[in-house]
Structures are given as C-alpha cells and as structure tokens.
Amino acid sequence: MDTSSLMPSPLTVAAVLPCYKAKEHVLGVLSAMPAIVNRIYCVDDACPEATGRHIEANMTDSRVRVIYHTANTGVGGAMCTGYEAALADGADIIVKIDSDGQMDPQAIPYLIAPIVGGMADYAKGNRFSNIEDVSSMPVARLVGNAGLSFLTKVSTGYWNIFDPTNGYTAVHARVLERIPLRKLSRRYFFESDLLFRLGTISARVVDIPMAAIYGDEVSNLKITSVLFPFFVKNMRNSFKRIIYNYFLRDFSVGSVYLVLGLLLLLGGGTLGTFFWVHGIIINRAATAGQVMFSALPVIFGAQLLVAFTSYDIGRTPSTALHPLLSRLRSSTLPAADSISR
Q1: pLDDT tens readout for residues 170-190
Q2: Which residues are registered as beta bridge partners of 207?
Q3: Percent of all residues in the chain with a pLDDT value above 90, rounded to a whole number
Q4: What is the DSSP string of 106-156?
Q5: Which of 115, 234, 275, 306 could be disulfide-bonded to 286 (CB atoms 3.0-4.6 Å)?
Q6: Please, which residues have CB within 8 angstroms of residue 241's CB and are 6 or more apart in sequence?
Q7: How far apart are CA 82 and CA 328, in angstroms?
Q8: 103 is in which domain, residue-wise?
Q9: Which of 237, 253, 258 is nearest to 154 (CA)?
Q10: Within a domain: residue 46?
Q11: DSSP β-ladder status, 122-126 and 169-172
C-alpha cells in the first residue's frame, strides 16, 4: 500500500501490539511499521512462545518497547497495559494492530487520517466495505459478523459502523483518557466494550475500509463460539446505555417514545393473552372488540419503538470530541515560561 502521498502527522503516534502466539509473524509486522509511528509497545501477554524475548533478541528498532505480563489477561488486558504506557509517555494517537500479520501496518496513515484532521475521535477498520473481499469470505463468518454488528449498533448507539470485532483501531489520547480502562472487558469483547464506553461520552467513531490479510496464521477468535457470550454482554450494555442516555443524563422525546411504546406493547400483549386464555376456558372465541382492544396498543407500541429507534439513530455522534478536549487541557496547563520560573 502506497502511503507516500500522505503527510506525516505532527502528533505523536504510538502503536500497541498485543502479543500472544504470534512469534512467527510479529517481526514482519514490526519491520513494516511506517515512519509516522513514533513509539511501538509490544505487550507479551504471558505468551508460551516467549514472543517478547524473541522481539528483543531480533529487533533493533529503537521505537520498540516490550512489556511483559506474568499472567495471561487476554487481548483487552494487554491493550489496557499498552494504552496506559502510551498515555504515560505522552502519545497523542494510539493505534492497535494485531501481531499475527493480518493487518497491514502501512495502512496506519489512512487509519489515523480522520483523527489527525479533527473529524473523528476513534477510527476502526472495516473488512466488509469491498464486495470483492466479502465474496471470498465463508458464509458463517459473514452471518456471524452481521449478527455481531447489529448487536453492537444497539448496545453502543453507533449505527454507522460495521465489523465490530475488527481489531485495527486508532484513538485520540484525550478521548482515551476519559475511558475507565480497567473496567473494559479483558477478552475478545474488548473492542465492542470500548465502543460502548466511547458512546457514553459521545465520541465520534468512523469506519475505514481496508482489506484483511489472510495467510497461514490461525485466529484465536471463532465467531460461532463467541456469538452467545457477545449477545449477553451486548444486551447488558444496551440496557446500561439506554438508562444512562435517556433517563439519568437526559430525558428527551426519545425517552417518551421508549416508555410509552413498551407500556403499550406490554399492555396490549397482556390483554391479548388474557382474552385468549379466557376464551379457551369458556370455550368461546374472542370477540372482534376484544381483538381490537388488545391489537391496537400493540400496533401503536410497535410504532413508538420504531420512532425511538429512528431517534436513537439520529443521535449517533457526528462531531469529534478531542479538539475541544485538547483545547481545554492546554488551557488548564501553566505556561512554559511560568514553569521555568
């Protein structure tokens, strides 16, 4: 991928690589890191292949720093460690890239471009933008990712994104500082959980089309095995998001749509069930009036829930948060000459 036409970012860019069973590919990933990346953090997550030692023995790039975990914490735990190290060292933009060679490091300038331009706070790859790439994917992966994407839209409020398990991401440090990193999921739900947290602060998220690189590496993530756990966790986050955004932090017309819609749907369903059971007991079909009396609340309730969904889609964050946060942060810092005194 040619990135020569992209100007280097004046901001400090850091890359974090969670390293676990990727010894055969990690050196190739590190060697391909573009010059725009100022620091590279490789987090050896108690890798049984001693990936960290392998990196230190074979990589002379001064940008590379290896961090070791004494116990395996999962991709989320490794990323939190890398994020904290990058923030402590003053990074402005932090990129997550896997160490198994499935992501092209040369795409980093494209990934961070919306953040550098002040148009987004968080950018992520989307492997499903190109029809040529999609047509070559297994049906199970397509169906599974479509299901996970819809669940993530509901739980995060980011209706404009797809491919939620894509681990090629970039985030601005000022936004990341507002995320409680130690509360994030430690395993494969990490990316989805981070999106949920970003949604609670109204950060803007964008998808960047890019192709995945499939070679002889073996992915540790199996869509079919995580679909049910992801469903449960996304439903939990959906409930939390709605309570936070529509009842605790704000009460809007969307809140009214949701409450009335649920009440009408529940009331109509309860009445319909009562009339149906009563008809069985007395051996007589429900009257037309009873049917309408129970059906109308269900219809109106469903319409109100559709209106709530439309309202929720319209609330998808469309303005980047980090330019304001950066200005606020700089305005609270003392001037350099006052420090020298």
Answers
A1: 999 999 999 999 899 988 899
A2: 124
A3: 68
A4: GGHHHHHHHHHTTS-SEEEEETTSSHHHHHTS-HHHHHHHHHHHHHHHHHH
A5: 275
A6: 155, 156, 157, 196, 199, 200
A7: 25
A8: 13-246
A9: 237
A10: yes
A11: antiparallel
